[in-house]
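Side project, low priority. Logging it here so it doesn't get lost.
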Amino acid sequence: MKSITVFCGSSFGSDKIYEEQAFLLGQTLAKQNIQLIYGGSETGLMGTIANGALSENGKVTGVLPQFLKSKEIAHKNLTELILVETMHERKTKMSELCDGVIVLPGGYGTLEEFFEMITWAQLGLHKKPIGILNIDGFYNDLINLVENMVNKGFLKAVNRDMLLISDNIDNLLEKMRNYEAPTVGKWISKEEI
């Protein structure tokens, strides 16, 4: 993998571990010569992961909607800042630029970005690995929800298994390197439940 898009919060969260792990992920990507693609902000975990990568002379590309740049939240020290018009264009560009996706803790925006990427994968629009860095069990309830979707017949187990989950950065990156996308369709017939 040459580039990874990271979706994460524009806040720091309530525990220092989120910030520490975001910074470490940025450093790890840079040390492994993996370009960081992210939302372009200097705030919260977004700014932290960029700073982590930059601290190790990593290549960092931010993708930011023009209306957010005008709010002066753009990171000033990036390798490249790409300005787009809409949030949808932002996700599309971030997907185009990466070989894989990692999701860190965040709020509504992070979840929206994650669900769009996993839906695109489920529909066969891309075959990129999607990893969740489950820092301090942050995504345990989401993982349980996804399992419930399988148990209730709304999601195939093979589509659930497209999610690569770990609480360890190196382990998650290894899972992503070894990922092979499934070749099944999205829809479930009643006979398959």
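Brief comment: The longest strand covers residues 60-65.
Revisit when time allows.
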